[in-house]
Structure formats: C-alpha cells, structure tokens
Amino acid sequence: MADDLRDWLKKVEEREELRRLDGADWNLEIGCTTTLNWKKRGPALLFDKIKGYPPGFRVLTCSLLTPSRIALAFGLSPDSSDKQILEELRPMVPQWEARLDKFPPKTVKTGPILENVLSGKDVDLFRFPVPLWHEKDGGRYIGTGDAFITMDPENGAVNLGAYRVMICDSRTVTFHIQPTHDGHVHIAKYHAKGKPCPVAISVGQHPLIFGVAGRRVAEGMEYRYVGAMRGEPVEVIEEEVTGLPIPADSEIVIVGWCPPGKTRTEGPFAEGTGYYGGAEERSIMEVERIYYRNNPILMGSLTDRGHTDHSLFGKLLGSLVLENRLKRCGVRQVKGVFEHEITQNYFATVAIKQQYVGHAKQAGLQLASLLDGGRFVIVVDEDVDITSLEEVIWAVCTRANPLKDIDIISGLPASDIDPIFRKGETERTGSKVVITACRPYSWMNEFPEVIKFNPELIKGMKEKWAGILEL
C-alpha cells in the first residue's frame, strides 16, 4: 500500500506509466494536453517548470485514468483489469464498513504538510500554478482533485467532499457544493447561527483520500473509510487556525473561513456532463493560511464530455459502495451494481437472481432512491455482464416490455449542474426511470434460451489459434 501521493507515484513511474512534462503554460495548455492524453487512456502526467513558475511547483493530472493505477492505489496487482478490481474489492467493502470504528484518524503533531506555512500578507493562492482548464471557465480552478474538509457544528462529524473550487483573488476562493451534500449542510448550520464556517481544502493527497471524498459513504466516516481500506489510520494534524483535521502528508492545504452573507460569482466550469455549468453567486472562503510541502504537487482532475480524470476510479468504488448499501436495505440476491463511466452519475445497472414476482422492480426502485442525481436505472438478470453497456442494452431490447417494465419517478432532488434544466429555473426537481430488463419471473423458465458456446470449447479455440488470432 502506498503511504502518500509521492510513494504511489513512484510505483506508477516504475511501471513506466508516468510522464514528466516541462514548460507547459498554466493557461489552457495543461488542460488541453490532459484531455488529449486521457482520450488515449495515456499515462499519468506530472507538469513541472510551468510558465511563470519556478521548478518544483508541479501539477499532476490523469492520475487515476487506468485500472493499473487504480489497482496500485488499493494495493492490488497492477495487472488487474477493471472487472478484476471489482471482483477483488467486492468482498472487501462490507469488511471495510464493519470495522470503521477501528480506524479513526490518528492525530499527530507534525508531518510533511508543515514544511512551508504562509500566513497574513504572505498568503497568495497564485503562488501555485493553478490551471485555467478550459477556455470558458470562469477562472482558475485550484480545486478539482481535492478534499474539502468541514465539520458539523452540532455533532462534530468531519466530512470530506470533492467540490470544485475557483480562485477569485490571491486570498479568496469560491466553490460549488450541491445542497444535498454534507459540506453544504455544515456551512448552512454555521450560517444559520450567524457564524463563519471553518474550512480546509487539501489539493494534493493520496488517491484514496480523494477517491473517498468524491463518493457517498456514511456521514463523517471518510477518514475512517480510508483507514479501513489501507489497514492503518490516516494521520492528521489538528490545524491551528480552524481546528480541522488535515492530512499530515497532503501536498497543499488552504484553510480559512466561509462567512455568512458574502458571495462571489463562481463559474462557469466545464463539467463531466460535457457542458459548461452556469455561473452563479456562491459562498466564499477567505483564506487565512496556506500549508505546502517542498516541491508541492497540485492534483488536478480534469472534466470533459462524459469523463473525468478519476471517473473510472469513482465508478469502480462507487459501484461497490452502492451495491453494499443496496444489500443492507434488504434487497436479496444482488449480484452486482455498476455505474458506467461515460454516463457520469446518470445511469446505473443492477444484476439480481430473481427470487419472487416483483423482485426486479423492487431492486430497481431501491437503487433509484440511493443513486445520487441519477436518471436511469436498469435491472437485469445475473447472466448479463453489467460492466458491458452492449450487453445491458441487449437485455433492455430483448427482455423489457415498455408498457409494463418502465417506471418513472418524479419530484426528486436534482443537481444544479444538470444541463437538462434551463438557466434561472428555481425549482429544479428531477425524475428517474427504472427499466426492468429481466426475464418475466412467472415464466422465466420458458423464456427463449440464450445463444452461447461451451466454455471448454471457447478455451480450446483460444489455445488452438494462439499467435494467429487474438480471441
């Protein structure tokens, strides 16, 4: 298991999956190069000697783009495919969640993050080569591959979220958090009391911290979740301005206060939906202090049409977390859940082994209630490979009767970056479609037989034509 971001990067470089690029411009060149690279599923990119900045102030992109790099983050074999990662992690998820109480974060007095400290007049967010990622972004986004840290003022629960953060000026940022997310709830609680909310934002950290920050886990359990994954507690330092626990081995952490009643325009920003999210007045954070390591690495996670740098990682981990939550809700014989990478959070498939009439629809409706912001839920039989969109669509086309097997649920909370809503709409409520693409339970044994070859014959043909055909 890698100890911090740099240890993980060493393992990536040993596999020749890291490229060091010198001389890029922070103004669009990093964003464009990153986009071209991830379309090819290329290596991780570490930009240095960025135009206008001294050597050693670096930007990392495409970090979690491939199954091999994701496997390294989890301590698995780097030769694992995405499907193999799912299979290896599936039994681990309930084990992680069962032992969260054993891995609270460990408070330490010092760590690499304290190597450099900027306070007062020395605070300057532009000290770092923060990219302008896309041409029409509203500003330079320092938070794309981040962990946004807040605390509930009532119960002390610490939340880590992955929210976009835009620089307004050298000492101020603004950010975008969905109203349903814990970070938004924490800020609202402080503001309801007329108090500023303490905030810490890590913008370079171990990939698992970033990955968990971007997924829905039990409230206030993000640090514990990462600890359970790694088999050792996350070391944190109690930051002296805000009192918030920050990762001791983060690369860069900015801290300060989100005051009530103060806003700045945030956005637009090129989102993973493939469209620019609109510009709106949003809360700000007034930065009081910046911590950073020597030769700091700013972690970026670029978004574009249907993809982000971390979308594959998010879908693998998110699918397993959703599957475990679905099982805990009492849905029987769940064989797998998968959120398809290209669809962002809008499309998920669940496979079940049907046990009774209505079982498939029950599974679909329950998953729809758990899916954050999603629009389409497909339920299939266990013989369908849910990681293959081709097989899922085949099942929809051959096993779903539109009149009986499509249900639409309306009036649900919706994301304000969802492009389906017109700018200025005040009530953004969405709908979800549940498609039951299973063989009808009452006569499933009479359903036409699926065409397939004997596994032994398939194995024999692969061996027979090895070196001639890639079968």
Task: Give an account of the 3D structure.
The chain has helices at residues 5-14, 29-39, 67-74, 82-89, 92-98, 182-192, 207-213, 222-230, 311-328, 359-370, 389-399, 402-405, 455-464, and strands at 18-22, 44-48, 58-61, 106-107, 116-119, 141-143, 147-151, 158-161, 164-169, 172-176, 197-202, 235-238, 245-247, 252-258, 263-266, 269-270, 276-277, 280-292, 297-299, 303-304, 307-308, 334-339, 347-352, 376-381, 406-413, 429-437. By secondary structure, the chain is an alpha+beta fold. The protein folds into 2 domains: 5-308, Pnp Oxidase, Chain A; 329-446, UbiD C-terminal domain-like. Strands 5, 6, 7, 8, 9, 10, 11, 14, 15 and 18 form a 10-stranded antiparallel β-sheet that branches. β22 and β23 (347-352) form a beta hairpin. It starts with a helix and ends in a 7-residue tail after the last helix.
Outline the biggest β-sheet.
Answer: 10 strands, antiparallel
| CATH architecture descriptor name of the largest domain | Roll
What's the β-strand tally?
26
- As residue ranges, the low-confidence spans are none
Q: CA-to-CA gap between the ends?
A: 34 Å
What count of helical segments does DSSP give? 13
Strand content: 25-35%
Salient structural properties:
13 helices; Pnp Oxidase, Chain A; ten-stranded antiparallel sheet; five-stranded mixed sheet; 471 residues; UbiD C-terminal domain-like
